From TrEMBL:
Bias (Basic and acidic residues): 25-54
Keyword NAD: no
E.C. number(s) listed in UniProt: 3.2.1.26
Similarity comment: Belongs to the glycosyl hydrolase 100 family.
Name of this protein: Alkaline/neutral invertase
């Protein structure tokens, strides 16, 4: 059966791509202080040209039509993952169609109140579902069946789902300029539960969140247990969003106080211990060990001999990034795309660090982007290390899936980070690269190979979030103000 063209695919979802020439300013860092509204989300009629192909009289945007119900019906045909829906939700918001996003946010937060039991153990009442199915029994009302991790690979509860829900709620509120949904009792209760869980006191001496392997987008064993950059960056972003979303009452203000205290500690910790550039790498290389005093420099007793050989060649003279993980006697120097892009958008990274991250990507383009944007992490683990880290996972072989695979959905995060940092030319370069193959290849989930030039061996095609990630990236380049839906400005 031939792969449907992109026009046929979007027709099924009641969405169409239309394109136009781009006009950009590559040197200007865009002002995010004025939020975009529906006035920034233009609607354009798609017409047929003489050869019968769809074209547009104006810029690249989604086709205007009564697509909300049809698109929601399409979503119901399969499992809906919370994290996967986010780029789709952003595409709807940017196209001026917020109703489906509102429905998703409401349905998802209602699932939070379910009693969650796995092997006779009750999960936290704050836990959000990883995904849900909509079933239609014959002659009976629809049933929504959530999965809180009890059906997932490894049976791990998703930590990132709640953060993504908060981020999408913030984007919805900013786009619609309507806080009524965020201030509804259901959403406020959900926020309170999530924040209580994340801000609770424990035995930790770090402000970061301790999580297991498989609790985020990398949902299989990949050695990201501990204090993974992806979780910490999303946590930081969600906390900043929550300050805006919480009601201005006694309970809300108490949460805001706790959040600001945590943000200060988390920001200091991440900048101090996760950030690596040439100078910091050299300092780590020269670390002393076994320092017991309060004035210790090597506070986590990291052994310099544990530094991987590849990182010395990978680190450019200009550039830097937040490494994957820091814990006692352990630094994971792998580069993770999502965590570093969210660090830029949330201002976890300073302006200088944001520029350094983009400069690293530009300098190491062949390693991090190559032929298909963009690597989920770099480098891949292989050989004996692969056996130990992944447990001999045949899906996460070297340069495949979560082990150095290339994921088109990450394009929107890369583009947003580039546009926010004033590097629009880099964003366009990534978009131009992805346009050469993604549609022609049938919109696969991920690509394999060191260069990302092979369709993933188990990659599903016609992936909604691959499509949505591309659409969001295109719209943000066309209208940089849209980046403010998912970005903050650095506090003065």
């Amino acid at each position: 059966m031939p792969t449907p063209s992109i026009d046929e695919f979007f027709e099924n979802l009641s969405v169409n791509i239309v394109k136009s020439p781009r006009s950009v300013n590559d040197t200007k860092e865009h002002d995010l202080s004025t939020p975009p509204t529906h006035k920034d989300s233009k609607r354009f009629d798609v017409v047929k040209s003489e050869d019968g192909r769809k074209s547009s009289k104006s810029h690249h945007f989604l086709k205007p039509n009564p697509m909300v119900e049809e698109a929601f019906e399409a979503l119901k045909r399969s499992v809906v993952f919370v994290r996967d829906f986010v780029p789709s939700g952003l595409a709807y918001l940017m196209n001026g169609d917020p109703e489906i996003v509102k429905n998703f946010l409401v349905e998802t937060i209602q699932l939070q109140s379910w009693v969650k039991t796995s092997d006779k153990f009750n999960l936290s009442s704050a836990a959000m579902p990883a995904s849900f199915k909509v079933l239609k029994p014959d002659g009976k009302p629809e049933i929504i069946c959530p999965d809180f991790g009890e059906c997932a690979i490894g049976r791990v509860s998703p930590v990132d789902s709640g953060f993504w829900w908060i981020i999408l709620l913030h984007a919805y509120t900013k786009s619609t300029e309507d806080s009524s949904l965020a201030e509804s009792p259901e959403c406020q209760r959900g926020l309170h539960l999530l924040l209580t869980l994340c801000l609770s006191e424990g035995f930790e001496t770090f402000p970061t969140l301790l999580t297991s392997d498989g609790s985020s987008m990398i949902d299989r064993r990949m050695g990201v247990y501990g204090y993974h950059i992806e979780i910490q960056a999303l946590f930081f972003m969600a906390l900043r969003c929550s300050i805006v979303l919480l009601k201005n009452d006694d309970v809300g203000m108490e949460f805001v106080k706790q959040i600001k205290e945590r943000l200060r500690a988390l920001s200091y910790h991440m900048k101090r211990y996760y950030w690596v550039d040439m100078k910091q790498l050299n300092d780590i290389y020269r670390y002393s060990t076994e320092e017991y005093s309060l004035t210790a420099v090597n506070k986590y007793n990291v052994m310099p001999d544990s530094l991987p050989d590849w990182v010395f060649d990978f680190m450019p003279n200009k550039g830097g990034y937040f490494i994957g993980n820091v814990s006692p006697a352990r630094m994971d120097f792998r580069w993770f795309c999502l965590g570093n892009c969210i660090a830029i958008l949330s201002c976890l990274a300073t302006h200088e660090q944001s520029i350094a991250i983009i400069e690293l990507i530009e300098t190491r383009w062949e390693e991090l982007v190559a032929e298909m944007p963009v690597k989920i992490c770099y480098p891949a683990v292989e050989g004996q290390e692969w056996k130990i880290v992944t447990g001999c996972d045949t899906k996460n072989t070297r340069w495949s899936y979560h082990n150095g695979g290339s994921w088109p959905v990450l394009l929107w995060l890369l583009v947003a980070a580039c546009v926010k940092s004033g590097r629009t030319a880099t964003a366009i370069k990534a978009i131009d690269l992805i346009e050469k193959r993604l549609s022609k290849d049938g919109w696969p989930e991920y690509y394999d190979g060191k260069l990302g030039n092979y369709i993933g061996k188990q990659a599903r095609k016609l992936q909604t979030w691959s499509v949505a990630g591309y659409l969001v990236a295109k719209m943000m380049v066309e209208n940089p103000r849209l980046v403010s839906l998912v970005a903050f400005e650095e506090e003065k």
